[in-house]
Amino acid sequence: MAAGVVRRLSGALQGWVRSMSAEARNAAPSYKFESLRVMGVRDSVLHVELNRPEKRNAMNRTLWREMVECFTQVAQDRDCRVVVISGAGPIFSAGIDLMDMAGDILQSEETDTARKAWHLRNKILQFQESFSMIEKCPKPVIAAVHSACIGGGECTLSSIIRKPDKPGAGRQGGVEGVVDIGMAADVGTLQRLPKVIGSASLVSELVYTARKMMADEAMRCGLVSRVFEDKETMLDGAFDLASEIASKSPLAVQGTKLNMIYSRDHSVKEGLDYIATWNMSMLQTEDLVKSAQAAMEKKSPRDITYSKL
Fold first, then answer.
1. Which residues pair with 170 in a beta bridge?
2. Contact (Cβ atoms closer than 8 angstroms) between residue 170 and residue 149
3. Which secondary-structure segment (H or E) carries 161?
4. Banded pLDDT at 294 (limits 50, 70, 90)
């Protein structure tokens, strides 16, 4: 009898462990940050807001670190399919928080030049990762930029869709101010901006002069997709777009983002080989059957319940 009780208790314990493991896998991440505010605004849509309005959302060490933590969580959040990123307060971002960063860059404890350089290189790689995480995250990211984006354009360049507010009242200058503070941009502008705009002469002008780029010019050159009259209208438009994307198959949307980024950095042949390998498994999804059936019944993707990814 004792042996039977032990077996029953053991079985119950194993079942409880499996249940707890499933709950842990399905539990929504807890987004608690000092420099970022994360909110669910629509079904399957997260709003990530740079939240240092008193400092004009200048990028300090905390923000650099929390961007990595945040988008690592977003990538694993099964309830999130699309992200909108914006800035609290009067502008999107004032760029680098020079006072905060001075300690890391100018006050190294190392006395040996090579060791100083090694330390600084590691810091730069950490800062690069802060914005590369937006690109690495399989969920589409919409950057809703209002007023000014000074020297912090890497954040928006890492996103898929950019939406500044109206010309005149706002400006989108992802490289503004970088050369003016005596440095070459080192966390993504010089690498991503030429691929986004596609004009070597315009990119050269922007990065060498650090001049302002107004929203209407940003739209003409393809840096942004839409322009709105004010911040509120812009955010509504960004959330509407995010909701439309979130209504699609998450396998299809996230697979599309990953393949677009891969193809950007590889040859056409390599991109075709990659998508062929990708779809040899992904085309076997039930999402394809559901979508085809909905199309035959004259329904939209919003009428389909796709499983969480």
1. 167
2. no
3. strand 161-162
4. very high
